[in-house]
């Protein structure tokens, strides 16, 4: 069964790095589970656990003895550990394996090929078969030309690799960086908006609109899937699902869906004004709730939303901090979890910094509310001081910031450093925070692919945190969005050398 065809398999990526797209794919005729949906109506192929349920990729292109990366992207949510064997199609020569654990939709995976293996794959094709996993694994095989990295492709290794920071904006500005609607896509959108704030060319603003246009139709109707790949059209799936509305409010404040997010917040608020995820209050809400609330408060001059945003930050300071310790989650029974997780600090600090930046530009608050904002600025300074003590000499942070043995985590590092840079921009933090952010930026250079994608990212905590402690790391466009936020804010700070779009 032919799933996708391309008349020309060579694709020029936005960062000017050429890749070779699969010319066509053949697989067994597996059906998408009834409760699930492939995003955007794109074509996907299932690789099943049964014999004969493999996927074969073919390329039309010159045979070259050139090392390359073979990449695929996930099309349906994965809730188990999966391994794919990769071999040549005609002679069955083993080439490598994909190690895929609890993957989210749009996550990229890659296997390094030697020059001889690249030539073999181009000559014979490549077969992907499931060697671990109980359910079919679905990968994208067809989609728009504007999203080449989300389709199977070969990325040749270059002996003269360009600066990956120069490739990052082009990669992020394409549809290759689209993520699941919610916190992951929100990180990308904020990266694009921050790049626009730094560059002011309109280029990245157009990319934000193109991204949002994938999820909203011409009538403003929202169409997307929740984190389990289940259709969630026309509704907000949870507190993490409101982050993209911050970007929507900035590029199209009159959009008919804006009121949907506001209604969700107001209907979900408890008597004390806090908005939780069921019975749990999480650090994510500083970024995914308080920040978009503050954006809308400024956009619509709504004092009630500004106060609600302040309340979210105050509640999280009270319930998630304990001296110099920060937790990701506070539970109804009084317990707390994910102690000193780097991405807990990421969401807490980035939410504080971004919300304060929006509220600082809000002109109609009473003095008492500005006093509350001043207290939150003090909390940003306190928490920033704590997290800077855990920064490694190289400039990054571990998965658990006080446990170096858990290994470096790049997305949390990027977000923490972006928050530090915004704090300097606000005048809340001093130059030492700016230099700490710059050290992070420089250290992240070694964790960017040649075409500008961040790797070294800890997997999402769908497996209750086990993967974070096992040293498992992924490529992540969500993480790329956070790196872009850091890069762009640093460009807006005076006196920091060598950073330009």
Verbal overview:
- This protein is of the alpha+beta class.
- The protein has two domains: 2-156, Jelly Rolls; 164-492, Glycosyltransferase.
- 39% of the residues lie in helices and 18% in strands.
- It contains 14 helices and 19 strands.
- The chain has helices at residues 115-124, 164-172, 183-199, 203-213, 244-251, 258-268, 284-300, 303-320, 342-360, 367-389, 410-426, 431-444, 466-469, 477-492, and strands spanning 2-5, 10-12, 18-21, 24-27, 43-47, 55-58, 68-73, 81-88, 94-101, 108-113, 126-132, 137-142, 153-156, 281-282, 321-322, 325-330, 336-339, 454-458, 473-476.
- The strands form five sheets. Strands 1-4-6-11-8-9 form a six-stranded antiparallel sheet. It has a five-stranded antiparallel sheet with strand order 2-3-13-7-10.
Give a quick precis of the structure.
The chain has 501 residues and is α+β, with helices and mostly antiparallel strands. 39% of the residues lie in helices and 18% in strands.
SSE layout and pairing:
Blueprint: E1 2-5, E2 10-12, E3 18-21, E4 24-27, E5 43-47, E6 55-58, E7 68-73, E8 81-88, E9 94-101, E10 108-113, H1 115-124, E11 126-132, E12 137-142, E13 153-156, H2 164-172, H3 183-199, H4 203-213, H5 244-251, H6 258-268, E14 281-282, H7 284-300, H8 303-320, E15 321-322, E16 325-330, E17 336-339, H9 342-360, H10 367-389, H11 410-426, H12 431-444, E18 454-458, H13 466-469, E19 473-476, H14 477-492
Antiparallel strand pairs: 1-4, 2-3, 3-13, 4-6, 5-12, 6-11, 7-10, 7-13, 8-9, 8-11, 14-16, 15-16, 16-17, 18-19
Helix pairs in contact: 2-14, 3-4, 3-5, 3-14, 4-5, 5-7, 7-8, 7-9, 8-9, 8-10, 9-10, 9-11, 11-12, 11-14, 12-14
